[in-house]
Structure formats: structure tokens, C-alpha cells
Specification:
- This protein has about 270 residues and is an alpha/beta fold.
- It has a single domain, classed as Rossmann fold, CATH 3.40.50.
- The chain is built from 10 helices and 9 strands.
- The strands form 2 sheets. It has a 7-stranded parallel sheet with strand order 3-2-1-4-5-6-9, sandwiched between helices. Strands 7-8 form a two-stranded parallel sheet.
- α7 (about 200-205) links the parallel β7 and β8.
- It is globular and about 55 Å long.
Length: about 270
Amino acid sequence: MVFFKKFSERKNMEKKVAVVTGASSGIGAELCKKLGAQGWCVVLAARRRQELHQIAAQSGENTITVVTDVTRQGDVEHLKTEALQKFGQIDVWVNNAGRGIGKKVMELSEADFDEMMSVNVKSALFGMWAIVPYFQEKNKGHIINISSFLGRVPFVNSRSAYNAAKSALNSLTANVRTDLRRTHPNIKVSLVMPGMVSTDFAKNALYGTPSFPSASGSRPVIQTPQEVAELLFELVENPKPEIYTNQSSAETAKAYYSDVAAFEDTMFRG
């Protein structure tokens, strides 16, 4: 009996644990399913209790759900505590929660701007504040911040404050990555920049989503959340500093930074 108990404990220790925010739908939900299918223990966090339970039921046997408002630092700290109490460790922390907006810069209110920064930047900052000291103590771990291609290229002006928030997240991610690389090189920090993904993101954006033309006049490449989740799982297995989830976004970003004026001229012609 003692042998089997120790064997079971050792097997549990071999399991890896991921915390995923924004896990009740979209990319976060699909990532949880993928992780669970690969034998990971998964901690699902979001505000919607019922939807969390539904996704957890599809994410393997080793899951817990933690109702979390990621704009509240206390909730995020509680999320970390619950994960550690249940599974005894955390290996990967995914800051995935976010929300869009449908207003141009001069249409924004201060409250609009504050909400975008809170949901899209402060939530990830709270996540990093919660998990980095734990990872430093372990001297290993992996943080994944889900940003957006729009944080690199001002491609959709009606997303204005969302774009600005994701740009800020890009910068914070790069800064914490270089800080940790100097002192704790075994802690990996990754930035993920999806383009258009077929989720309810557009429908749930504050003030909706106006139609917009592509810069080239062609239809944009739209990925499924399952496709993005596959790429995220590859990133979990093989950490990189940053990735675009589709090559067209990477090419567009290169074109933008190589000649901003020419890129903007193309947008106006489009």
C-alpha cells in the first residue's frame, strides 16, 4: 500500500498545471480543452460560472473552476491560491481575458478608456504580480500574455482604446521578460498576437463592431479558436518570446514598420 501511495503521489507530481483566464469561451476555452486532452491539470478562470463548468467538463478530469473578475487584484490572488491548494503547483499562467471596443479615439469617454486598460492591461499585470514571485521561488515557469495584432498595427481605428491597451500589454510583456531573463532565465514570458478569430469577441465588444475594409482590399484571414489553441499548446511545449498566430499578420506588421507612410497610404486607398 505504501508503494502504491508513493507511486500515485509521484505520478501526480509529474502532472503539469496551467491557469487560464478568460476560459469560459473562445481561445481560452479551446486551450483548456487542448491542455486537458494532453493530460494537464487545468484551472479555468472567468466571471461566468455556468460557462466555466461547461468548459471544465470538456477539459479532462483534473480541472477546477474559479470564478474570477480579473480586473480585481484580490480575485487574481485568490485564483493563484486556489490553484496551489488544489494541485500544489503552477507551471503555466495564461493571461487571456480581454474585451474590445467600437469607438474611434475622439469618440471615447474617460470611462471607456479606463475600462479598456483595466480589462486588457491591468488584468494581465495583476496576473504577473500574482505568479512571478511564485515562479521566482521555483526558478521556473511560463507566463503567456494574449495580446493582439492590433497592438502592433493600427489596422482598425474603431478599436482605438483596445489597440492602445494591447500595445501597452506588448510593452509590459517585453519589459518583464527582459527583467526576468537577467535574474531568472528559466522563467519564460511569451506574447501572443492573434489576428481575426471566429469567436464572440466582435459581438461582445463595447459599443459593438463596425464593419471595416482591409488595407489591401482583400478579405482578412480568419482563424478558428481551435487553430489558435493548437498554436498556443505548441508555445507551451516550446516557449518563444512572441508569436503571431498567422503569417499574414506578421507580414503586415513588417510592412507597417518598414514604411509607415506608405502603409497608411495603402489603407486610405483600400
